[in-house]
Amino acid sequence: MKTQIISELGQTDILLPALLAEGLAANNRIKVRMSALQAALRRAQEPGRPPVELNAESRAAGISPAALATLIGGAHLVGGSRMTAPNLAKLIEEITGDIAAMLDAVKAGEPAESEPLAARLAAIRAAGLLEAADEIEIARVAQLTAITQGGADSLHRLVMDLHKAINRLAALCSEEIVSGAHTFGLQTEDRDAVESFMKGLNATRGLKFNHPGLDTTANRSNGRLLIQNDIGETDAHVVVVAVSGNSVSVTYTDVHRPRAKFFIALFDEFDVEWSGLDRHSTSLGEDAAFYLVTGELQAGSRGDRDAFLTALGAALVFLIDWNKARKLLRNWVAKEDAIRILDWGARRRIGHRALLELGGNDLIGAAVRNAAPSRIRFGERLDQVLGRCAAADFIQSAMRISTEALSGGRSVRLVRDQIEADLIRHLERVDSTLLGSVLRQVGLAHDIIAAVAGHVAAMRAGQSTDGERLSARAGLIERKADRIAADARKEAIRLAAGSIIEQLIDRVEDAIDELEQAAFVASLAAAGMDLRLLSALAELCAVAISATEAAASGLAAAINVPNGLRLDTEDALNAIARIVDAEHAADRCEREITTLVFAGHFDVSTSLCAIELARAIERATDRLASVAHLLRRHIMADLSA
C-alpha cells in the first residue's frame, strides 16, 4: 500500500481494501435486487407470463436464489397503483444495506467526496423511497430503479455514481499494478487469471484510440477473485468477472440489448452458459430499461480458463461506441449487415473506433460524393448500388484502412484517397457484374448459331431434320435472352453504369434477334438443297460461331481488367481483333453465297432461303463487331481511369 491516499488515511490502510471489496460486492448484489424488484412488478402486472428467473445472477452475486424466486413468483397488485410480494420489506432493507456499504467504502477512502453522495441518499430516504414495507407504490419502483435523465436523481443513478467512486478509490489504493490492472488483496493463484485477462485487454486496448475507458481493477472478496472493467463512459455499462478455481462467472450490464447480444456472440467458441438477456427490460419506460446478463464457464483446465479470460479482455474495446457505429453503418447497409460488419471487425481485431475517429459518416459520404456522384444518389444505401456483399466488403475495407492509418499515424487525406479508390474498385466490379450479364447473352447467341450450324450440317449429310424444333428452340432462347437484357438494362440505368454498358446489352440483343431470324429461315429450307450452297452456309455458320466465342472470351477477360491483370487486358484486345476478323470473313462468305444464288439457276424458294439465311447470319456478325468496338472503348476507359 504505497499510494499517497493510503498514507493520508492512517489506519484506513487496513480497512479500506476490505471496505472497497465489500462495496464492490454490494454493487453486484444491489443490481440483482433491483432487477428482482422490476421482475416482481412485471409479474404483478402480467400474472399470465412465466416469472423471471434470476438463479444464475443471484449465485454470481452471492444471494440465495430461492428468496428472490419466492418474491417474484408471489408478487401481485393491490388496487391499481401498489404491489405486494413475499419478503418485499426484507428486499428493501437489503437494498438499503447494500447502498450503505457502498457509501461506507467511499466515505472511508474519500470523506469529502462521500458527503454529497450521503446527502443524496438522505434525500431518497426522506422521500420515503426506502421505507421497508410489504407493499410498495408502482411509481416508487420506477423512482428506485430508473436510470433518470435531465439531472433528476434516483437510487439507481446514486448506485452508479457510488460504483464509479469506488472504482476510482480502488485504482488509487492498489497494492500492485498487474499488467496494467489496479489490484489489491490478491493471492498468488490470482495473478495468472488477472494477467490472462489483461493480456487480451492490452492486445486490443489501442483500438479505442483517444476514447477514455477500459480501466481495470481486481480484488479478492469472499474467497474469489473479482475483476472489474469500466468499459467506456456509458452509465450502466460495466462488466464484472468472478473467478473461483477454473470457474468463471461474467456479469454484464448494458442499456442496449443488441450490444449485449453482440457481446455474447463473441464467445461462441467457448462453452459458456448465458442467461438473463431477455429478462431485465422494464415496462416502466425507456429511461428505466437496462439489461443484465450472466455467463458461466466451467473450464476443464487452467489453460482453458485463462484462454477465456484473454478473449474476454480482448473483446471489451469493441463495445465502446458500438451503438454509435451501428447507427452509422445503418445509413449505408441493412441493420442486420451492420451488426455482422461490427462482428467482423471485432473478430479480426480491427474495430470501428478508428472509422468514427476519422469522421465516420462524413468519411464515407465524402468518398461517395467524390468517387461516384452520379452513381449513388443522396440517401441511397451502398448495398442498393453495390449489392449486399460488395457493400459490406467496402465498409469493412474502410474500417481496416482507418484502423491501419490511425495506428500508423498516416494523414486523414491519405485515408480519404484510399477509401475513395476502394469505392471506385467496387463500382468497377458492379460494371463487371453487368458485363457478366452481357456474357450470358453472348452464350445464348452461341447456342442459337450452333443449333443452326447443326441443322445445316445435317442437311448437308443428307440426314433428316426437324425445322419446327429448330425454330421453337431458337425462339425459346431468344425470349430468355430478352429477359436477361431487360434485367441488365434496368440495373445499368439504376446504377448509372454508363452508355457503353447499355449499348453492349443492346448490340448483343440485336445479334440474338438476327440469329433467331436465321434459325427461322433455316427451318424453312427444303430437303435436297444444293450441296454448294450448304457448304457455303456451313462455312458462314462456323465463322459466326467463332465470332460468338471470341466475344465471350473478350467479355470474360474484360471483367478482370479492373483488377489490373495485364494478361486479361491482352486477352480481351486479342479477342476483339478476332471478332473484327470474323465479321470480315462473314462478309466474304455472304457475298460468295449471293454469287452462287445468282449463278446457279436455283428455284425461287431455295434462292430466297439461302440469301436470307446468309444475310441474317452476316448481320449478326455485324452486331458482334459493334460489340467488339464498344468493348474496346470500355477497356480503354478502365485502363485510363
What can you see in these coordinates?
The chain is α+β, with helices and mostly antiparallel strands. The protein has 23 helices and eleven strands. The protein has an eight-stranded mixed sheet. It has a three-stranded antiparallel sheet with strand order 1-2-3. Strand 6 (216-221) and strand 7 (224-229) form a beta hairpin. Helix 2 (12-45) packs antiparallel against helix 3 (55-61) and helix 22 runs antiparallel to helix 23 (604-640). The longest helix is centred in the last third of the chain and has 49 residues, at 412-460. The protein is elongated and about 120 Å long.
Keywords:
641 residues; alpha+beta
Task: Give me the number of helical elements.
Answer: 23
Approximate shape? elongated
Order the strands across the largest sheet as they lie in space: 4-5-6-7-8-9-11-10
Major sheet: size, sense and barrel closure?
8 strands, mixed
The number of distinct β-strands equals 11
Summing up helix and strand content along with how strands pair, one would put the structural category as alpha+beta
Percentage beta strand: 5-15%
Return residue spans where pLDDT drops below 50 for at least 5 consecutive residues.
1-14, 281-288
Measured between the Cα atoms of the first and last residue, the distance is 66 Å
Average pLDDT rating: 85
Helical amount among residues, as a percent range? 55-70%
